[in-house]
Write a structure and sequence with these properties.
416 residues, 6-stranded parallel sheet, 3-stranded antiparallel sheet, 18 helices, 11 strands, elongated, binds oxidized coenzyme A
Length: 416
């Protein structure tokens, strides 16, 4: 069975997290991803957060599956020559260097376009054009500058960053969509184009509902936020909402049986309006079904804290999985707070290929996250990340047609 992106060749100049998540996705869809790394150094993450001495870190291996690695010094003359050939042979160039790095190497967009008019040149940068365009950016900077941190956390605490890597992996996803869209466009136009995804923009996109609330604030308090019922006045900006649901159906995180010793014995509970009567029955409050103080969503808005405290009295008598068992048949939307340990051990996630065990020649078996996007006719096989320069000779020979002598010359000049 052919893969969706088979035949598409990616010149992967990415490093750290945002860019590599993008090219890993393209690799899962079947593209030939050629990861270019500095000789002897490679992607900095190979050596970061190592759990086993002298073995590529999980940080690197979990972000670089389904790629081939070539080492190439793109700042040497011979290296630039080889890189120029690669530009001509590839369909997409992806990079997430600090602003201007590729220009300084001698490959601005204009040069790339001239070398290969069909080339799609895709970049992640921290910020788009404007006052911060020259800044280097990491995950948490993007979360802060994109509005996520100011709206995450509890009302009486400082801004909080989230564990979900919305700045890096989130922007990698955005960029991947931009690339396949540009590939689709190229089918009609015959030309490549420049694709840009700024991490700040990606986070703002994911925080869209918070900009919604910012504008709603001008017309009165945000009644679905717990602080409304707690009679805490709203300020000028969208506040931190704790565990409030963020949608039209109020929700909160509630303690379950064992919470005293298990930090993850909690459940997310949504008081969805259409199943309110079922909720009243299950928590032992049938009188709330007809009580005008509780019977309608509007009447409940100023009592959410009390309502969730009452529901919690019930959830505390059950494990998070028992809460699921009781609520799911009644169509009450609830979700267990799963620890990473529970996720790693969950059999159904192994079966769908969302959690995959991979074998690595130096580290042995490790777990990774497979492709979360499932295509029926193009299933993703997860292939271990390459060792540094593992495919240098193979790529120089098969993709560029270099002879043994030419490869040896490049090696003697430390270009590869
Ligand atoms: N051969 C020769 N030189 C190479 C090379 C190669 N194969 N690959 C990279 N280099 C050079 C680059 O040209 C650059 O050199 P100059 O500074 O002289 O132009 C240098 O290596 C390092 O690039 P960098 O500045 O991008 O790396 P950094 O570690 O200092 O910064 C980061 C890292 C992530 C802050 C920065 O790349 C960045 O802001 N990227 C854009 C935003 C982004 O993607 N951030 C998310 C990263 S994941 O958290």
């Amino acid at each position: 069975m052919t893969k969706a992106l088979e035949g598409v060749r990616i010149l992967d100049m990415t490093h750290v997290q945002s860019g590599p998540t993008c090219t890993q996705l393209l690799g899962w869809f079947g593209a030939d991803v050629i990861k270019v790394e500095r000789p002897g150094v490679g992607d900095a993450t190979r050596g970061q957060l190592r759990d086993i001495p002298d073995v590529d870190s999980l940080y690197f291996t979990m972000l670089n599956h389904n790629k081939r690695s070539i080492t190439l010094n793109t700042k040497s003359d011979r290296g630039r020559e080889i890189f120029t050939k690669l530009v001509k042979e590839c369909d997409v160039l992806v990079e997430n260097f600090a602003p201007g790095a590729l220009d300084r190497m001698g490959f601005p967009w204009e040069v790339i376009q001239e070398l290969n008019p069909r080339m799609i040149y895709a970049s992640v940068k921290g910020f788009g054009p404007g006052p911060y365009e020259d800044c280097k950016v990491y995950e948490n900077v993007a979360q802060c500058a994109g509005g996520a941190a100011s709206t995450t956390g509890f009302l009486d605490g400082p801004p909080l960053v989230t564990g979900a890597q919305i700045g890096d992996s989130g922007t990698g996803l955005h960029l991947a969509l931009g690339i396949v869209t540009a590939l689709f466009h190229r089918e009609k136009s015959g030309r490549g184009q420049r694709v840009m995804a700024a991490m700040q923009d990606g986070v703002i996109n994911l925080c869209r509902v918070k900009l919604r609330d910012q504008q709603r604030l001008e017309h009165g308090p945000l009644k679905e936020y717990s602080q409304y019922g707690q009679k805490i006045p709203f300020g000028k900006a969208t506040p931190r909402a704790g565990n409030d649901s963020g949608g039209g159906q109020p929700g909160w995180i509630l303690k379950c049986k064992g919470y005293e010793s298990d930090p993850d014995a909690y459940v997310y509970f949504i008081t969805q309006a259409p199943v309110w009567k079922n909720i009243c029955d299950v928590i032992g409050k049938p009188e709330w079904k007809e009580d005008p103080e509780y019977a309608t969503p509007d009447a409940r808005l100023d009592k959410l804290t009390h309502i969730f405290e009452t529901i919690e009295e019930w959830t505390k008598t059950k494990t998070k999985f028992e809460v699921m068992e009781h609520c799911n048949p009644l169509n009450i939307p609830v979700g267990p707070i799963l620890s990473m340990k529970e996720i790693a051990e969950e059999p159904s996630l192994r079966e769908t290929g969302t959690i995959v065990e991979v074998d690595h020649p130096k580290r042995g078996a490790y777990l990774t996250v497979g492709n979360p996007i499932k295509l029926s006719d193009s299933p993703a096989d997860v292939v271990r990340a390459p060792l540094l320069g593992e495919h240098t000779d193979e790529i120089l020979k098969d993709v560029l047609g270099l002879s043994e002598e030419e490869i040896e010359a490049a090696r003697s000049e430390s270009a590869v």
